[in-house]
Amino acid sequence: MNLLTLEDLVQPDSAGYFWGNKDRLPPIVEGIDGKAMTLVGDGWLDMGNKRHHFDRTDPFSLSLWFRIDDESTYGPLLAKTSGLFDGDRGYHTFLNKDHTLTARMVHVGPDNELTVQTQDSVSTGSWHHIVMAYDGSSRASGLELYLDGAPMPIRVLSDNLRQSTTVTIDPTTGDSTNWAGPGRFTDWLIGYESADARRRGRWMNSRCSPGALTLPEVNLLSGRKSRKRRSH
């Protein structure tokens, strides 16, 4: 495990850990504005568990600049989840094998979660800006995905979130808990939520903020009116 710094626009002084083959550290390449990190295979970035603790009643937004370098690429983009043993509890954004996008808010999947999937896919070889915005309503209608400053048409796969996306309640003690232990929650992950992924792409400038971003705010964040999309 090697410690690598990654610009985090919410907490600029923080650092992230790269998990993967230490002899094949992710190359640093040119991004849309500044430097980007290339993730290949099973490598991912772990930004620690001290930030971005949002539950199902909390409005919040995630954003990321990314580029798909290979048609076979799929897997998680941003996630904060306690994993399979907790039924994928947490929140997720995922690039599917057909390059559509999925967003999830989960207590225990698949029965107690919100899941939406975009109707359109993301192109390969160009930089894209994704935003996941959630309004805290515990309804699928409050979960939106934007690509390059524009809302993406979505279809609802699940609209049945009834309990916390951060913890469950131990019925014998009443304590808030997860599989990892009482009160424990997972790290904020870039490019990972489970081992089911194939990556060859570039990631940069992740953001997480309280509140569901509005369309004008998404436009400003993506630079839609001032920046032409760059393919190299």
Mean pLDDT: 76
Strand content: 35-45%
User: How are strands sequenced across the largest beta sheet?
Assistant: 1-2-5-18-7-8-9-10-14
| CA-atom Rg in angstroms | 17 Å
Structural class: mainly beta
Gross morphology: globular
The main pleated sheet reads as: 9 strands, antiparallel
Span between termini: 30 Å
* Oligomeric state of this protein: single chain
Query: Which segments are poorly predicted (pLDDT under 50) over 5 or more consecutive residues?
Result: 1-14, 226-232
Query: Could you give the order of the helices and strands?
Result: EEEEEEEEEEEEEEEEEEEH
The tally of beta strands, per DSSP, is: 19
- Helix percentage range: under 10%
Question: Given the structure, what is the number of helices?
Answer: 1
Can you walk me through this structure?
The protein has 232 residues and is mainly β. The protein has 1 helix and 19 strands. The chain has a 9-stranded antiparallel beta sheet with strand order 1-2-5-18-7-8-9-10-14, with no helix packed on it. A 7-stranded antiparallel beta sheet has the order 3-4-19-6-11-12-13, covered by helices on one side. A 3-stranded antiparallel beta sheet has the order 15-16-17, with no helix packed on it. Strand 15 (168-169) and strand 16 (176-178) form a beta hairpin. The longest helix has 8 residues, at 215-222. The protein is globular. The model is unreliable at 1-14 and 226-232 (pLDDT under 50).
